Amino acid sequence: MGLKKGINAWCFPESIELEKLFHQAKEHNYDGVELNLSDDDSSPLNLSSSDEDLMKISDLAKQYQLELPTIATGLHWKYSLTANEPKIREKGKDIVKKMLEVGSIFGAKSILVVPGVVEPSVSYDLAYERSLVALKELAEIAKDLRVSIGVENVWNKFLLSPLEMRDFIDKINSDFVGAYFDVGNILQYGYPEQWIKILGERIRAIHVKDFNCSVGNINGFVPLLAGDVQWDKVVSALEEIHYDGYITPELMPYQNSPEQLIKHTSHSLDEILKCNLQQV
Question: What is the reported pTM?
């Protein structure tokens, strides 16, 4: 199984310069970096970034022998594909289009998309219909740009079982729409190894974080190997479906000595990939 070690830019301090970020990622033996699209023009990767800006980022990553295999964003919480306001839904689609364009220039294989949010004013069935329509439309752009859309499992009260997510993806019926599976996010209401086996070849990318189930809320997310994820079962499931892409931690930086998170997470990934947790 040819898994590669990625690291999400949110693992680093927000103020870090991009070159320093790439330097630390390379120094601590990561193969690639997942950058996050922002609506802040001061961010290295934002909605206003030109093709020239993007090429500079791509060239800088290459200088450090790093890939930019996936693109993420938090903007779909603000601009949901399932919002009641049509302008917000259209903005959400524009963000996906921008991510696909970025991914095409970066040579990325997949982007992360939050498919929608169920809330008091947006019923589950309505969210399902709106998300399905939007992603079918966006799938055509993904196909043209040869970059996959990865639907992520998040705490959005939506697509709450692996069977439902599998069938939702299959209804879109595109080779360029799959799942961006987050191992830690699922622990609150499921078992990651079961989701992995059911989603199978639909999985385009993997996020990893750990979770303490006894806490049971947002404060339960902890560094890798410090929570309740059974990593040996996760890696076994990935081997079973022949997954050979990136596994990318998505963690909050340490308040003090933040580079230590990058170092510790790299070592933890090495242990996870060896399935040798009994010696940790």
Answer: 0.95
